[in-house]
């Protein structure tokens, strides 16, 4: 697998990111190994904190200190293609199943057990599959602004029409894409504008996405979001992710996601949803989990006020406090 590795000097003196880097080589699925970076802070029960697209473990910088102070061990990996992890340059090497495989190899290589998954965005699409397929290693789940799409409610005969709509969707600038999310739906799902922007827009860059999405982003924080991605070849994973989301019923990930949903309909271990009130992407997505997952019964599900899609950054302290309370309620 042809991959690049971001020069370490790009990560020097990032604001509020004093954490020691850790690295592990995982099975790349093609007969070789690929290097993943992860943070490993504190002692105690393990919180596996998974980021999504187009962020990296920097997203958890505000949450790690209070979680560690509360007596937990926080492991926050950089997904392959992000942060300090290796970045395949061929977009075809990024698949949904491949990301699940890389994370499975990660937890197996480190032999992590009694895990609590904390996940958001693609961290949930991958993480929830990881739990379903490795249930003996997980004890709890905290889901924030994410989901497990499986094509529910979309007739299979709609697939050709949806593919046509996606092909005809323009690659708009980032500001226009966010405006589409805030507006009523037009003749196509708003998410298609996001797919096309990441896939083909010339101005796509993870740092620009984060700056546009966050409540605040200083110039130094912008430098941190840009750090993993010095040129176009480094952003192929970030470009590819939205195209992998199962929004069309013939997506190859749907059977495995439906199997995972069947698993969660039997999951009786603690399951908490903590969504934010200002995320136009996942708003309302928590309800299916609350209604369907036995382990979600009786939990203190919360809508966090003042948080956008990346609530770990916008409302990190509040999110950390919810996790601490959840862990105390479910020892």
Task: Tell me what you see in this structure.
Helix 5 runs antiparallel to helix 6. The chain has 13 helices and 10 strands. It is an alpha/beta fold. Strand 7, helix 3 (122-133) and strand 8 form a beta-alpha-beta unit. Helix content is 37%, strand content 15%. It has 2 domains: 3-153 and 252-329, Rossmann fold; 156-244, no CATH class. Strands 2-3-5-4-7-8-9-10 form an 8-stranded mixed beta sheet, with helices on both faces. Strands 1-6 form a two-stranded antiparallel sheet. The protein has helices at residues 64-69, 96-109, 122-133, 159-168, 174-182, 191-200, 206-213, 219-226, 236-244, 254-264, 286-292, 311-314, 316-329, and strands at 3-4, 22-27, 33-41, 46-50, 73-77, 87-88, 115-120, 138-144, 271-276, 302-304.
């Amino acid at each position: 697998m042809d991959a690049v590795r971001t020069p370490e000097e790009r990560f020097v003196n990032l604001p509020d990111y004093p954490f020691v880097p850790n690295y592990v080589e995982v099975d790349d699925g093609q007969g070789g190994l690929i290097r993943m970076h992860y943070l490993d802070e504190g002692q105690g029960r393990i919180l596996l904190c998974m980021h999504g697209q187009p962020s990296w473990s920097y997203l958890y910088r505000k949450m790690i200190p209070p979680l560690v102070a509360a007596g937990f061990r926080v492991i926050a990996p950089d997904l392959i293609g992000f942060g300090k992890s290796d970045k395949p340059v061929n977009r075809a090497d990024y698949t949904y199943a491949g990301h699940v495989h890389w994370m499975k190899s990660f937890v197996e290589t480190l032999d992590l057990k009694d895990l609590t998954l904390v996940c958001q965005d693609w961290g949930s699409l991958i993480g929830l599959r990881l739990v379903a397929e490795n249930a003996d290693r997980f004890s709890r789940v905290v889901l924030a602004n994410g989901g497990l799409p499986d094509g529910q409610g979309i007739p299979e005969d709609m697939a050709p029409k949806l593919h046509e709509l996606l092909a005809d969707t323009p690659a708009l600038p980032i500001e226009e894409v966010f405006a589409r999310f805030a507006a009523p739906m037009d003749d196509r799902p708003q998410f298609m504008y996001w797919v096309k922007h990441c896939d083909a827009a010339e101005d796509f860059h993870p740092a620009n996405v984060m700056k546009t999405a966050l409540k605040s982003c200083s110039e130094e924080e912008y430098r941190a979001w840009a750090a993993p991605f010095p040129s176009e070849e480094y952003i192929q994973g970030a470009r590819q992710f939205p195209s992998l989301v199962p929004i069309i019923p013939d997506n190859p990930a749907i059977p495995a996601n439906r199997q995972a949903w069947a698993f969660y309909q039997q999951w009786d271990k603690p399951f908490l949803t903590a969504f934010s009130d200002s995320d136009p992407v996942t708003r309302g997505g928590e309800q299916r989990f609350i209604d369907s997952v036995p382990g979600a019964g009786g939990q203190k599900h919360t809508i966090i006020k003042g948080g956008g899609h990346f609530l770990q950054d916008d409302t990190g302290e509040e999110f950390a406090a919810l996790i601490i309370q959840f862990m105390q309620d479910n020892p």
